[in-house]
Amino acid sequence: MANNKTLCFKCNKNKITYPCEGCSKYFCLMDLTKHRQILNEELNYVINDYDQFKQRINERKQNPQDHSLIKQINLWEIKSIEKIQEKAQEYREMLMKSSQTCIDDIEMKLNDLHKKIKQFQNENEFNEINLNQLREKVIEIAKEFSNPSNMSIEQNSRSLINEISIILSKKSTFTKWKHNGITVAGGNGEGQKLNQLNRPGGILIDKKKNIFIADYANHRIVEWKYN
After folding, report:
1. Domain limits, the chain
2. pTM for this structure?
3. Which of 65, 78, 115, 196 is 20 to 30 A distant from 93 in Cα terms?
4. pLDDT tens digit string along 81-105?
């Protein structure tokens, strides 16, 4: 309903003005129309932002692997595997080199043993003691070949790779909703009674499950104790 003539907030002229409930200011009809157009444009911006954000949410749901931290984990995995592979190849080369040295040493001992066997055969002068010595030498060389004393694997407790951890600093505030419930506050419009709310602007539930509501148009904050 039109008021008596007052100053228009926009053009600052004395005209018949109309209130805008949202900003509690008065505008002439022309400026109120422009004001509403601006509000509609801003609403369209909000809707556009919402649509874009909703699209990003849907894309994330469809492609959870696109999360930036997932990409960091994948990179850490690749780098860690590369480091392990490099270290494993280094140890393999070291082992093969040491193994070849061991084989060369065993072959030298076998050659010496072969010379002694040939010597006994050629001279035809050997006895039980010589045979036992040859037999023990063969056993000793075979044991050295099967279990070289200069090679072993030792596990080191020091981490080979840089470990990472996932730190969740904020837990989800969403819990499973019950399918039924009760109305604890609301309705009944303007006033100061506990059963009245007029354009509530915010709600908070504390650790004791008490409910606090910013009752905007009634100019107050109201607390409802748990139960």
Report:
1. 5-62, 192-226
2. 0.43
3. 78
4. 999 999 899 989 988 888 888 888 8
